[in-house]
Amino acid sequence: MQHFLGTDDLTKPQIQALLDDARALKAAPQNDRLRGKRCALLFFNPSLRTRTSFQIGIADLGGTSVVLDAAGTWPIEVTPGAIMDGEAEEHVAEAARVLSTYVDLIAIRAFPKFQDWSVEREDAMLHGFVKHATVPVINMETIVHPCQELAMLLALQERHGSLEGKKLCLTWTYHPKPLNTAVANSALLAATKMGMDVTLLCPSSDYILDDKFMEAGRRFAEAEGQGLRVTHDIAEAYSGADAVYAKSWGRLDQIGLPMEQRLTPDEFRRFRVDEEKMALTNSATFSHCLPMRRNVKVTDAVADSEQSLIIQEAENRLHVQKAVLSALIGS
Ligand code: CP
Predict the structure, then answer these.
(1) To test the ligand 1 pocket, which listed residue (50, 309, 313) has its Cβ within 8 A of the most ligand atoms?
(2) Quick one: pLDDT at residue 73?
(3) Angstrom distance (rounded) from CA 205 to CA 215
(4) Which residues contact 306 (CB under 8 A, 6 or more apart)?
(5) Confidence of residue 314 (pLDDT cuts 50, 70, 90)
(6) Which of 49, 138, 317 to mutate for ligand 1's pocket (most ligand atoms within 8 Å of CB)?
(7) pLDDT in tens, 199-242
(8) φ, ψ dihedrals at 182, nearest 5°
């Protein structure tokens, strides 16, 4: 593994090896695998979990990290050949090469700007760093969130054992504003690759994820002899599910419109995860990537239930990321 940009280009055994190492690191958190190694954590967007778990994880392995908080302060140009007479003071061609002289690994969080999905789906900042850096690159969330999906898989395996054939209800849930599709994309890819039978529940066909992720999910599901189906019927999606994973995301076809035209219709509050819906499942576990608006996305009763894996999944970010760091630059 040269970089960690997503799980779609990893094999199922490679993903399982990362999860197995994460389990070992959870049992024995500290070692010297990153002794003498330096990591730059570049954030164009805010974070609680990602920033904390990466910094602590690198320290646990004997390495050093520097956080570069570029949120709104240090725009970087990514277009090759750009005439840089706008906001950006720096091109990724220099930023990536300079950082590569200081550190052994660069990790990046760069959400889409929600201006033009046809452009943003190319993930230009991440791939700009990959093109110009001479050290490994980790995706800390762009249009996918592969660290989160590993944490989800580990939490699910800890509770369910093998995930093969287990039914996952991946549900859109209410949020007043449109959010990134990254976690939903990643949950879909991870679950199908690891052999889960996945139902994507969303309010209408307008909310279906980008074709490239849907097609990859279908391919992975088929390879595992499982299914990936889309439904807008709440009862159908929850019925018999072994796991419920919730996330809100915005319509791709509305990206670029003014925010007042993109607000989520109030009628979709009915997608909130609650006890009645969970009662339709096969005593399913519940999880969400966090942060999560209580009693808007999910009721307190579900979030605080025995079946809730939200804290376990968040903790697992620490362990899976240490496994990824070890695989990329560990001794
Ligand atoms: N789930 C997640 O990535 O959390 P943060 O945005 O707080 O890093």
Answers:
(1) 50
(2) 83
(3) 15
(4) none
(5) very high
(6) 49
(7) 999 999 999 999 999 999 999 999 999 999 999 999 999 999 99
(8) -55, -50
Helix H or strand E encompassing 197: strand 197-201
Residue with CA closest to ligand 1 atom 4: 49
Q: What are phi and psi of 310, to 5 degrees?
A: -60, -40
- pLDDT of 309 reads 98
Cα of 142 vs centre of ligand 1, distance in Å, is 12
Q: Tell me, using a 6 A CB cutoff, whether residue 327 lines ligand 1.
A: no
- Torsion sign across C-alpha atoms 283, 221, 191, 268: negative
Q: Mean pLDDT across the stretch 293-311? A: 98
Domains of the chain, CATH where assigned = 12-145+316-329 (3.40.50.1370), 148-313 (3.40.50.1370)
What's the mean pLDDT in 116-135? 97
Q: How far apart are CA 77 and CA 84, in angstroms?
A: 8
DSSP for 288-326?
A: E-S---BTTTB-HHHHTSTTB-HHHHHHHHHHHHHHHHH
Q: How far apart are the first and last CA of the chain?
A: 14
